[in-house]
Amino acid sequence: PGFTVEVVPELDSTNSELMRRARSGRADPVLLVAQRQTAGRGRLGRVWHAEAGTALTFSLGLPLAPADWSGLSLAVGVALAESLHPRIRLKWPNDLWLHGRKLAGILIETASTGAEPGGARYAVIGAGINLAPPSAEGLATPPAWLGELLPQVQPGQVLLQLAAPLVEALLLFERAGFAAFRARFDDRDALRGNAIVLSDGTAGTAAGTNEQGALLVHTAGAVKTVTSSEVSVRPA
Ligand code: BTN
């Protein structure tokens, strides 16, 4: 399906803008790029900050009706990583990593527009990808940027590279769910086999994902299934 591409110099947040549009009944497929965000948002209510010109920040909005939404952020991560570079890894549930540092984040939100038939929602898939060295202020680990792999990288080129694979992945997800992405996620799983700590304090070893995209963690004597997107994970 076709989608409109819109590039604007400044917005509070591309996710916020598409969510506002959806709530007011505009549910057409659109790829919205902001050259600068003044109130970029991350997961778990965090702020996502990027200096102007250092990151590609965009959201893709489109109506989607998968039978099961679980694992969508992993499928998006797979599509982005595969379209960008073989060396990019994925950190459950939705970060792209390079050399053990965060390269990009994904924020997925959905809205009901009232117009769709049962089960369908307007999905807003937001991503922020560092292109140039970002400011590392207040971060324990300095972020990674795509220029490390692709010198002279340009936002427009990156967007062209990822847009079609991303839309394709969303349509595949709609038909086949996370099952169609599980092996591809495993290939790039940055945590697998590593000691990790969940935000609730649980320590264990990351052991891949289940068929719904939940994180499996081997803890003392048990396998814990981590489904909640409210949980954050860090290497121990
Ligand atoms: C995260 O790392 O927690 C997710 C970061 C997502 C940032 C992108 S930038 C484009 C889109 N608009 C936003 O406000 N957030 C996402």
Automatic annotation (TrEMBL):
One GO cellular component term noted in the UniProt record for this chain: cytoplasm
Annotated EC: 6.3.4.15
Taxonomy, superkingdom: Bacteria
InterPro entries: aa-tRNA-synth_II/BPL/LPL, Biotin_CoA_COase_ligase, BPL_LPL_catalytic
Keywords assigned by UniProt, alphabetized: Ligase
Classification via PROSITE patterns: BPL_LPL_CATALYTIC (PS51733)
Pfam families: BPL_LplA_LipB
Recorded GO MF terms: biotin--[biotin carboxyl-carrier protein] ligase activity
Protein name in the entry: Biotin--[acetyl-CoA-carboxylase] ligase
Provenance organism: Ramlibacter lithotrophicus
Source organism phylogeny: Bacteria, Pseudomonadati, Pseudomonadota, Betaproteobacteria, Burkholderiales
